[in-house]
Amino acid sequence: MSVIVELSVPVEEFPLGRALAATPDMEIELDRIVPTGDGVLPFFWVWGDDVATFVSELEDESGIDEVAVLDRVSDGALVRATWTDEPGIVEAIVESEATLLEVARRDGVWKFQLRSPDREAVVGIQRYAADNDIDLRLDWIHTLTEVEAGDQYGLTDEQRRTIVAAFAAGYFDEPRGTTLEELSAEFDISPRAVSKRMRRGLRNLVAATLVGEE
């Protein structure tokens, strides 16, 4: 039976985290990693004034085969990175045939939320991590039935927690009782990422309730 699982690795275990450590003023939005026959191709936005240095640092990573800037905007760029098959969390996910649902950086770790074919595939990821000295932590694991029973509105756990925290702090009040900056400090992500997470969550909430009633 398919399961939903959240795994965590320290920032330094993930090449993107090491590149960000060299450019601390940069921010990154990474939604998903798409498996292909040649490995994985993560597409992500990087924000800040030092895109060139970030890309250069990423190119020096042994786990990265190629980096390309696909588009530029005033304060960032859309980047594509082709990964090698060097042992790491990305290769572990690819070998398990899991689908990556969400990636978030929080409290000094990268959190990967996956849909895995079964629990044995998750055990395979853990075994791969142990064999390759990857500091991997299993945060939680649920069956799809458990997830659907606990969340009827199409929200990820991150979206639900962010919206609930914003509501409790008065973000939706007039005048507002908190700001995106204050919420971003609570979740250790950028204000832009908080706004994006809430928009997606509220969109899913409306689609599952108001729209579904029409």
UniProtKB/TrEMBL annotation:
Q: What is this protein called?
A: Bacterio-opsin activator domain-containing protein
Superkingdom, according to UniProt? Archaea
- HTH bat-type domain: from which residue to which, for each copy? 155-206
Which keywords describe this protein according to UniProt?
Answer: Transcription, Transcription regulation
Q: Which InterPro entries match?
A: BAT_GAF/HTH-assoc, HTH_bacterioopsin
Q: Which residues form the Bacterioopsin transcriptional activator GAF and HTH associated domain?
A: 5-136
Q: Which Pfam families match?
A: BAT, HTH_10
PANTHER family from the UniProt entry: DIMETHYL SULFOXIDE REDUCTASE TRANSCRIPTIONAL ACTIVATOR
